[in-house]
Write a structure and sequence with these properties.
The complex is a heterodimer.
Chain A (H helix, E strand, L loop, with lengths): L1 H19 L17 H6 L6 H32 L6 H13 L2 H12 L5 H10 L11 H29 L3 H9 L4 H29 L3 H7 L16 H10 L4 H26 L1 H5 L2
Chain B lengths: L4 H5 L14 H40 L21 H8 L3 H32 L5 H13 L2 H14 L6 H25 L3 H9 L4 H12 L1 H17 L2 H6 L8 H9 L6 H22 L3 H11 L1
Helix pairs in contact in B: 2-13, 3-13, 4-7, 4-10, 5-7, 7-10, 7-14, 8-9, 12-13
Classes of the chains: A mainly alpha, B mainly alpha.
Chain lengths: 288, 306
């Protein structure tokens, strides 16, 4: 059975490696041939190759998103957990809702919000700035990047809120009382007690979330389709790794090129996954 | 800072101070901030809830708004003449019931196949020593690290070669392959917590290994099985990319693919999309919010492992 599981799930990956050495695409679907490392050469042909642009942009996206998730998740968790807050279950559930709605729906809702003409955000902006005004939410490259970040923060902060909230509740309150007796202020209590005790919960969540964010597709593709594009040959402003792969494979049909792309990305992700497992000490427990 | 007796008595409760007390400068400000803190925190929570819920509210009002009026340039929070028109339209004029039936069939099929595969696989990993166990574990991790979007290319080519592109059955196979890895890890973690003595006792009493698994382990892991099954169901129910790529004609569409078609075309009133979204996401939200207390332990640990 376990072999069956491995085979069903593993076979596509092995087959993918094979495709990456061929020239299979829409025109050579049945009659393709082995071409060796041509696809890999195309990936690494220079520092301005699509691969590096897309990778750098995705890292930037992860680098911007993760701190924002952490800050918003931490602030909401601390607020919900504050002793003076009433109706805690209500706040908790209301703030988790963005996580509960399927992402393909929320991505399309945000796309509507960002629409230049009818979009809710520009309608609100016109109230302040006059009837002709409008912000280029999805038409300017930098704005589009920011728009996708905004939508992504909305979708992802509840995960951090739930993780941090759970960890906060396991911190014994007498630690804070002892610190208060010793004269520590709120700021000091936060950095000296809360943060160190939250670390074991936050670290794995951050690594997991970084991998998920790196693999973002729905949010970016459904909102921008990878655009705006400056020219047809170059990746667009929100062409993150998976968006780029999806577009090239299923709109441009460069199967073998993206298969090679997939192999490289896979090694990257696998290294990160293994590294993070060793780092968080989970592998020892499992590989007894 | 030295601690004065007055603070030792009630260190966490702010005592009103008068201006004649010593230390009014810094301490007076701290008292102020303590009194203001609950107000500020509640204000922050209200702002965050508006941020969190506004998109949901927007879908709700759009679903009840008649026709094209969403594309007007005026702001209004709630439609003047709310109607059920959007709901009746997608239910009768669009193949929405068919999409719903397809989604349901695929999700239930994925859940059942995935559960059988992952429960037996997880039991083998949790209880038996066999050659290549460590390799299997690492392979499972490796598969999990391979993003499903990238696996989509070989899956597409394989399915196309065997003639299953466009068939809901092919899509289900792809979902099962994706679901097995995470579910196996998740269930293995749970099986590990069941004491080995229980199945050893059953074996001594004359049970076969299969009986021990079916009679002892499965009943004990019902909560974990239920959560894993529901997660597989939800993943399949909410999946868009694979369905979009692997399903070709409208009769085979699942709900996400159908709704994307409705939303991506600006000539089709957006209200139809909103009404359809509401129908599919309300059950999902109820399920999800009911499950959320399991997430902290199950999802984060299982997710990082897997």
């Amino acid at each position: 059975m376990i072999i069956g599981v491995s085979l069903i799930s593993l076979f596509p990956i092995i087959y993918n490696v094979y495709i990456s050495f061929t020239n299979q695409n829409l025109y050579h679907f049945r009659h393709y041939s082995i071409v060796g490392l041509v696809n890999y050469g195309k990936l690494f042909k220079g520092l301005d190759a699509d691969f590096f642009i897309v990778l750098a942009r995705t890292f930037l996206f992860v680098g911007v998103c993760i701190p924002l998730f952490l800050i918003v998740g931490m602030l909401t968790a601390l607020a919900v957990n504050h002793p003076s807050v009433r109706w805690k279950p209500f706040w908790r559930v209301a703030l988790i809702v963005p996580w509960a709605v399927p992402t393909y729906i929320t991505a399309l809702v945000w796309k509507f919000f960002f629409n230049g003409e009818f979009g809710t955000l520009n309608q609100l902006y016109r109230v302040v700035a006059g009837p002709q005004a409008g912000l280029p939410w999805l038409t300017d490259p930098n704005w589009a990047f920011g728009s996708v970040v905004l939508a992504n923060v909305w979708m992802s902060y509840p995960f951090f809120m739930v993780v941090i909230l759970g960890a906060l509740q396991s911190i014994p309150s007498d630690m804070y009382e002892a610190a208060a007796v010793d004269g520590a202020g709120a700021w000091r209590k936060f950095w000296r007690i809360t943060v160190p005790l939250l670390r074991p919960a936050i670290l794995p969540a951050t690594i997991l979330s970084a991998i998920v964010t790196f693999n973002v597709l729905n949010t970016a593709y459904l909102i921008t389709q990878g655009g705006p594009f400056s020219s047809a040959a170059k990746p667009g402003a929100t062409d993150f790794v998976m968006v780029y792969a999806f577009r090239n494979a299923f709109l441009l049909f460069n199967y073998s090129y993206i298969a090679a792309f997939a192999v490289v990305i896979f090694f990257l992700l696998f290294t990160v996954t293994m590294g993070s497992l060793r780092f968080t000490g989970l592998i020892q427990e499992d590989a007894r | 800072m030295t601690v004065r007796p007055a603070e030792l008595d009630a260190p966490l409760v702010a005592r009103p101070r008068t201006a004649t007390e010593p230390g009014v400068g810094a301490r007076g400000r701290r008292f102020l901030s303590r009194a203001a803190a609950p107000v500020l925190i509640h204000a922050f929570l209200v702002a965050m809830v508006i941020f969190a819920l506004f998109p949901i509210f927007f879908v709700l009002q759009a679903a009840f708004r008649p026709g094209q009026s969403l594309y007007s340039l005026s702001l209004s929070l709630w439609p003047d003449h709310p109607t059920w028109d959007n709901f009746t339209y997608i239910w009768t004029q669009q193949p929405f019931p068919t999409w719903l039936r397809n989604s349901l069939a695929i999700a239930i099929g994925t859940m059942i196949c995935g559960l059988i595969g992952s429960a037996t696989g997880a039991y083998a990993i949790a209880r038996f020593r066999f050659a290549g166990k460590k390799i299997t574990l690492i392979t499972l991790l490796a598969i999990q690290a391979f993003p499903s979007v990238l696996a989509l290319i070989p899956i597409y080519i394989i399915l196309k070669t065997v003639g299953l592109v466009g068939s809901p059955f092919g899509l289900m196979l792809a979902y099962v392959a994706g679901a097995l890895v995470f579910s196996t890890w998740n269930l293995k973690g749970y099986f590990d917590t069941i004491p080995r003595e229980l199945d050893e006792a059953a074996l001594i009493d004359g049970c076969t290994v299969t009986q021990a698994f079916v009679r002892i382990i499965l009943p004990l892991s019902l909560p974990a099985l239920a959560v894993t099954a529901l997660l597989m169901f939800l993943t399949s129910w909410n999946e868009w990319v694979m369905a979009q790529t692997l399903l070709l004609n409208e009769d085979a569409y699942t709900v996400p693919v159908g709704l994307w078609g409705l939303a991506s075309n600006y000539r089709i009133p957006w209200g139809y999309f909103a009404a359809g979204s509401l129908i599919v996401s309300i059950p999902v939200m109820v399920l999800f919010l009911g499950l959320q207390r399991y997430f902290r332990s199950g999802l984060t640990v299982g997710g990082v492992k897997g």
